[in-house]
Design goal:
The complex is a heterodimer of chains A (213) and B (350). Helices cover 59% and strands 11% of the residues of chain A. Chain A has two domains: 3-76, Methyltransferase, Methionine Synthase (B12-binding Domains), Chain A, domain 1 (Orthogonal Bundle), CATH 1.10.1240.10; 89-211, Cobalamin-binding domain (Rossmann fold). With 213 residues, chain A is an alpha/beta fold. Chain A has helices spanning 3-13, 17-30, 33-53, 59-76, 83-86, 101-112, 126-136, 148-152, 154-160, 175-179, 183-186, 198-211, and strands spanning 89-94, 116-119, 140-144, 169-173, 191-193. With 350 residues, chain B is an alpha/beta fold. Helices cover 46% and strands 10% of the residues of chain B. Chain B has helices at residues 6-14, 31-36, 40-45, 47-60, 73-78, 116-132, 149-153, 155-164, 166-190, 209-214, 216-225, 244-250, 263-270, 282-285, 290-304, 325-338; strands at residues 66-67, 83-84, 92-93, 138-143, 194-198, 231-234, 254-256, 275-280, 310-314. In chain B, helix 6 (116-132) runs parallel beside helix 9 and helix 11 runs parallel beside helix 12 (244-250). Chain B is globular, with a radius of gyration of 19 Å. The complex binds cobalamin (B12). Cobalamin (B12) sits between chains A (59, 62, 99, 101-102, 105-106, 142, 144, 146-148, 171-176, 178-179, 193, 195-196, 198-199) and B (71-73, 89-90, 92-93, 143, 147, 150-151, 155, 198, 200, 205, 236-238, 282-283, 315-316, 318, 320).
Chain lengths: 213, 350
Amino acid sequence: MEARTLRFEAALLSMDRVLCRSLLQEAMGEERQLEGIEHLLGPALAHIGDRWEAGELALTQVYMGGRICEDLLADLCPTSSTPVAGGPRIGVGVLLDQHQLGKRIVASSLRSCGFQVLDYGQGLEPLELARLARKDQVPILMVSVLMLNSALRLRELREALGEGPERPRLVVGGAPFRFNPRLWQEVGADAVGQTGVDAVAIAQRLLEESCAP
Amino acid sequence: MCAMTSAQRVFTTLSHQEPDRVPLALNLVLRGARELGLSIRDYFSDPANVVEAQLRLQQRFRSDVLFGFFHAALEYEAWGGEVVFTEDGPPNSGAPVLGSHQPLSSLRLPELAASKGLLKVLQAIEAMKARVGDEVPILGVAVSPYSLPVLQLGFDRYIELLLGDRAEFWTLMEQNIAFCQSWANAQLAAGASAIVYFDPLASPTLVPRSLYQDTGFQVAQRTFAGLKGPTVTLLASGRSLGVLDDLAATGTLGVGVSCDEDLAQIKAACRGRLCVIGNLNGLAMVDWSPAEAERQVKAALAQAGPGGGFILCDTHGEIPWWVPDDTLMALGEAVQTWGRYPLVGAEAHA
Ligand code: B12
């Protein structure tokens, strides 16, 4: 990783918003705005996610890292010129459970990396969430769950998303998937993420695949 | 060694001696509904159901403890939240007790006597105690004052409070400590032998150690100072290695540990001061065959059994609804076969 990215990561972890801001401004000044952002925020958040998965960092740090990036972006990039306005659209929601933290981490990571997030909320029934995603024609739907029985009901959601190249790809995550590595396939998902920041790499991969001839 | 009662077995291992065999702790709370052919909501509506079913299941699957536990969302309900029931999973909490714009000061300390759900748990513990006497230990469960705010405020708001406003945090903790002490002491008075202090936020998976030391660690010390019985601390499958010294310093007797970490390493770090409780992966267990269950039990016994100070349990402290009966049966049998002290056979499998 570049030295500046490492400094940015350290600043995120110590929640030094002032330093984060000046490093981001520096990167945006040197490169084209969007690339500056992509080269700094994406790798720093991904590294924080990897370190959480390895047991080196705590969830409070992952969450605050995402929050700070999201705030900085909203602050430094006026809406009209942000990548956010024109980036690919991704639907996110929590199936059945009310617990939103996983979804918030997913959403702030995606927003920090230029995606446009349609937040469908939490406590959603499978058919309702599928209907929303199809109506908006999002290419990707990201769903978080907390409980195993909620995870198992993703099968209903997957079925309701339908078939064919136009259907939204289903990406899942949450504690049950971290402890049971087979579960995502059992519920028919297209991909699974171990941390919320994985959402970015997965979205990029799925979008590339769908563009490939 | 002649057979011990379950209580002797558990207390011997808690004092870091080898009992006749490794004790098994299976929390089969939800399975009780299936046992009686009731919906989960109906099952929990009458404490007599829970008592009847838990006693049957404890004997069938040869667990050495009884859990006087319904579900964590009952505490959330006592604070004013609305529990969500399903047909195939634990009752869950709905939206946080406080709406995002409601100030912390609007949380009101609940009175136990007015919390119908909690009173049912106390009745169940009393009835279990009347049935098993001193033969089988009954574990009460209390969500820690430090972890409960996830349900009171929502996790995101709680993290921001924890990092942003220490004075408000401590004001909230004052109330939560008082609640936890009265709830845990009532369970002890009803007949619980010890309290499971359910504190996943003590885990470095969720909160960095330095922050825990400044906050949750002190909360645990203050809470335990007012308890009239012993505790074990469960981290709900969060990691423990970074905070074992701190947990031991709270005075808790044991720690529920994660399947994400090396059990032998944990055992070495806990030896003589914390009883290791764990660490079968309940969520993977859903797919285990009986043979896989036996293999997993043998591996755990070999890593953490020698010397006592080990209770075989799942990594979370509750067996999911979807785990097959055959798997659980095999698990109980494997402990009977391979868990006798001095341990032989299990070692070879490590
Ligand atoms: C803290 C905790 C608690 C706390 C707070 C719970 C809460 N948040 O509501 C307390 C003590 C109150 C508690 C209680 C209970 N808990 Co609990 N708890 C945990 C613990 C340790 C962490 C959960 C958490 O909030 N993590 C923080 C969030 C953000 O993490 P996460 O959702 O996993 O998200 C991360 C990744 O998965 C990923 N991610 C999430 N979503 C998505 C989506 C996409 C698309 C992607 C790419 C990534 C992604 O990103 C995040 C990190 O970056 C877990 C075990 C664990 N180690 O994870 C058990 C766990 C969630 N609990 C569990 C259970 C069963 C319960 C209870 C039902 C117990 C009971 N019978 O009462 C109650 C229910 C409480 C309620 N909500 O009503 C089970 C659930 C699975 C199951 N068996 O069904 C777990 C998994 C434990 C286990 N190993 O079995 N619990």
